[in-house]
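Annotated sample (chain length 313).
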Amino acid sequence: MGVFRVIIVASISYYIFTHCDFKNLTTRIFLASLVSVYTSKRGYDKKSLSFSGSLSAIVVGFLTTVANLSSFVCLLTFFVTSSFFTKWRSDRKRLIEENFKEGGGRNMVQVFCNGGMLSVISLLFLSEVGYGERVINFSRDFTASCLLSSMLGTLACCNGDTWASEIGTVAAFMKPRLITTWKKVPVGTNGGITLVGLCASAFGGLILGFAFLLSLKLFVGSDTFDMETQYHALRLTFYAGLFGSIVDSLLGAFFQYSGFCSLRKKVVSQPSRTTEFISGSPVFDNDQVNLLSSLIMAVITPIYAYYSWPKYD
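Output written by the structure step:
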């Protein structure tokens, strides 16, 4: 039944996206309302989102879809893949994670810390460029190209970090090493990295590049879409996912407390009488680190894209 539902939804979505006039603002608003409410409800039903998380996801999804359908496709890819890997091997994660929630159960704060920058970028896109689908071309469309590459950077960072955390936690065949000292640390330590996690972060970013190219193929006319110029998005998101995860780990190692609790037998984020210090300081929590790392990548990625993207007249 689940597979049949996916096929039906995919078929209807493909028909809508290929036959609707998205240059009409009313159509875009209707579509944005429809898809944001539907995907948020599905997330709530699957326990990927809490009730407050689903409400905030509607806001993020609506703004993103109205501004640019490519951004929506990338956001949807992030949501689906991160939700899948969050649930993957949850029995193992239950034993490791301090605040384990079945299915993930992201609340409003977590949604906005991961999607807040995307909402800001979408508002800037609407304000400075207008709504509509664009290709990245710094020679002809500088502002839109900066905002699109910023969108790719912040989402690749979030997706890469999620993949690294969720896959690296349970699939690593050796203990993580603290990124600042390279000492072995317990699984779950903030700032701990593994080779599996780094590879996962890079591919978590890469899949968003493929999503971006697919969206351009669907929504942008063949006269303006040129694969030779746009395939550089794959390199951009690959590096953004990898580097974003490293930035997140560095912030976690310096500004998040990690200690091993002798009672719970887990790594915890608050010092107490029963915890043994591992690393960091209790300055930020995990959500704040996610927000800060996505902000950093939203600023850095357009700069890298501008200097690495081929210039075409």
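Annotation: The chain has eleven helices and five strands.
Annotation: Strands lie at 177-178, 192-193, 258-261, 266-268, 275-279.
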